[in-house]
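Board notes (copied after class):
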Amino acid sequence: MRLQGKTAVVTGAASGFGAEIARSYAREGANVVIADINEDWGKAVAEEIEGMNSGAAVFQFADVSRKEDVEKMVKTAVDRFGRVDILVNNAGYTHWNMPVDKVPEEEFDRIFAVNVKSIYHGMNAVLPYFREQAQAGPNKGVVLNIASTAGVRPRPGLVWYNASKSAAIGATRSLAIELGADNIRVVAINPVAGETPLLAKFMGEDTPEKRAAFKATVPLGRFSQPADIANAAVFLVSDEAEFLTGVCLEVDGGRCI
């Protein structure tokens, strides 16, 4: 019960990494706001958590590129559970693997709105609550950004996705420096490609041959699983990690070595 009494908002929590992070936080005692644009899947995850007899959960529709939606999801956490301690910026978007000059402008805009601007909106929404809570002691406000190994070791065909994740890593480190004096921690996880709905886009197509070629670049020989990311996500927001900020942890089976 490492997160007992805490409230977390997890974006993109209707599937993939986000859903497993939300489940893991609830198992550790946290109350969780499931924020996503997929209402059916998001409500299903919230109902699943509600049946776990640990932390509580509520679904809140949120397009993380929209300021009003982000403010509403944070307000939902405070209204429903009385506080917000953890923000996980997990929602992500990518274009299909293709040459840089073939990516439509609207795809570029959507990638940066979901992967980067969402962090801007999220920070502005939680900072007033975090600053107030931080007066009571350390680790009263933690932001976890789900970036990517693509921001550390870029892959051809994903230029603008790579760039957006580099921006997320840079934002994490910059925010950590600026907000440390306020007792607010900002950390990140850099997952290697995993078994999520975005996998086919990363590879260009989902075939046995593409999977084998990608796995060959990972020393531990497999894709990441949602549980790999969730396990790291629990630790990084827990009191055990209260002296870690600005950390961008590769969970990648050794790919970035």
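Comment from the instructor: DSSP finds eight helices and seven strands in the chain. The CA atoms of residues 151 and 163 lie 6 Å apart.
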